[in-house]
Amino acid sequence: MNDRAADVYTFGTTPDAAHRLALLADLFAPPTRDLLARCVPPDAARPVRHAVDLGCGPGHTTRLLHAATGAARTTGVERSAEFLALARRELSDGGSEGGSDDGSDGVTYVEADATRAPLPVDPADVVHARFLLTHLAAPVEALRTWAGALADGGRLVLHEVAALDSADPVLHRYYGLVADLQRHHGQALDIGDRLGALGAAAGLTVEHAAVVAWQPDTARMAALHVINLRTWRHDPYITGSTDPADLDALDAGLVEIARGRPCAPVEQSLGEAVLTL
Ligand SMILES: C[S@@+](CC[C@H](N)C(=O)[O-])C[C@H]1O[C@@H](n2cnc3c(N)ncnc32)[C@H](O)[C@@H]1O
User: 15-160+187-216+270-276 domain in CATH 3.40.50.150?
Assistant: First the structure.
């Protein structure tokens, strides 16, 4: 157990934030599914008995991980009680936790801070975290904690943003502000560009590390961003450093892009890594 202050999650846990995560889950399911298919392919000789999804939010990645790995059991770990309630409701809509008939059989959730060791989960063959490390101020320490949840031969699979920009001035300004906000909280928007180095610093074996370019749909990205802006614009760092009129203009610009204003593409790359003990 460490006594560091809890990390600030700047993107919120409100119903709007949950809606944003649902949109994000749809948009990013293909690259994450592809990563899991390449790095944790279903293998009868190496079945996944237990998978863990850290920072699981309302459970979109947990269900994806469970289906993609064919895990017998999957545990989502999340700090937000609000998101966990949604995740559990999704399960109960298809049955009861651990007993649904929608492909989520064996999925359960636990409320915990994923940076606090030891994690309250059984040893796992796969520990997965998407877009969580970017919100943590002590990523190497976090990786050590996560590695502590691996069973013998287990794999830690990470998926994070490595770069995010656009030549469009509205999107460029938005990404600059998010990067500043993260930096203010000791976090890094582009942490995905150094997952291998972070894994090595945590004393882990880097089985795989890569940065993969992809161009997400610009209107869908702007729709996500405007929801996020309306959350993090209330962060004291932003209210103290940015003119509200600028934020209003940014909001209006993002709405226009979300509605289809032609603009320069979003240039994004995603970092991926598989780490082992
Ligand atoms: C950007 S969301 C990603 C959700 C999901 N993994 C996905 O990719 O759709 C980050 C999630 O991590 C959670 N989170 C942030 N810090 C956490 C911590 N220290 N422990 C557990 N969960 C945390 C947030 O509440 C949020 O649900």
Answer: yes
